[in-house]
């Protein structure tokens, strides 16, 4: 007899059970829909899920006669096996291996850039998170449906097998959805005005974030839990690749603070479910040789132990990108770390091996980000970096810089040129002498980093206000100045002399003169004041291309101050001199 309106198990027992499903919405946000590959794959998954849902709803709503239930159950199981799970596998692989992997690869590259650049990329994670949440909802609803089906008919073992298969897919998806969403910097320097020279000079923040876990109640089931981290060597990090359950119980070589952060979903729309490690700092555990430490790479290892619905346990380790801990500044090490973060495949491979050559645009973009990062480096450990868009390098500047790296005919740059190719000279005094010395060749990385450091220390405002033209040869400066109608200054960086700023000045008689300033002069007197008060620039009105010099550099204020500070011209009388005796 056909019976509708009641739910029966295979033994004919009535089961009153509402549908275990809720309606699943397709991606609705504009950003999520921009990824057409995701939309295509997700729609396939959603269509297969909808067929599964409709079939199960028919069963649970009592619309399948008792004598047809066995066949209907077989049909559902076959559909899940042949269509639902394969569709989910394809979408899972795309999200993990393409979407998240591409985001992580770019995260590695921008980690050498400015705070603004890194924050912009971090915000892009919200789109990835949305995609993961949509897929997570499909997975949870399907897993929930299979759970009810295996409970509904315990003698039909295929649903138990399908449940475990899908549960494994979910476990994989959720575990690899846990990421290091904020990475440590490529270099942590223990020097400068660090407290007692024991802590890292500049503190940093890191974060562990869960994507796509809301449907599995990861946010609520783990509220109040903590994630612990340790500082480990590169050797330990590689060992973890073979055994994710390898126990890490202590920091290696250095200590790390803080080591614990709580899981929170308070600001879910911006940071999701995450553990935020704020103001991380590194301290020495014991005596260490500078050279031996400089050659090592370290990671932060986060111990994960989270719970999700359907009795899913997410246990393992998450490891940050490699970085160096320097006991004192070491430009060469920082340069090598720049190459590793910019060009090595640290996301997909365990080694820090970098390619021998890279393309023109890839190198230009990496150099621009590194330059911006050095320019905004705080001068004191108590300073904070404002999240503002940094000045971009012009195409002309990028081209000028890249040509110094000697690209080949295929517009490829040998990375060996970055480290070894001499581009400038530095006059080094002999020990104990104030005049006697010799010229030494300076490699590209040292010349380039030094320019950014000079801007950071002495000319940040002028650079950010685009009063400094920057990368430009002497001949190019003279050519540009010839087109100016009035006497004009062009401020540029020396190509030949290490650590010097050049001021090319065009006078009213069309003559162009070049003047240089080194770091000692810039440290003792600001360049803006020098340009306003030095008599050699008195007849010059503009900064290239046509910026009023007085207005741009606050000339009226400086002149006003100078007038106020001038001693009064006294015309003393005989009475004045007679009174001086009483003042002594």
From TrEMBL:
Subcellular location: Nucleus
GO BP of this protein: signal transduction
MF GO annotations: DNA binding; DNA-binding transcription factor activity
Protein keywords: Activator, DNA-binding, Nucleus, SH2 domain, Transcription, Transcription regulation
UniProt cross-references to InterPro entries, sorted A to Z: SH2_dom_sf, STAT, STAT_TF_DNA-bd_N, STATB_N
Gene Ontology CC: one annotated term: nucleus
Signal transducer and activator of transcription b N-terminal domain segment(s): 36-175
Pfam families reported in the protein's UniProt record: STATB_N
Protein name according to UniProt: SH2 domain-containing protein
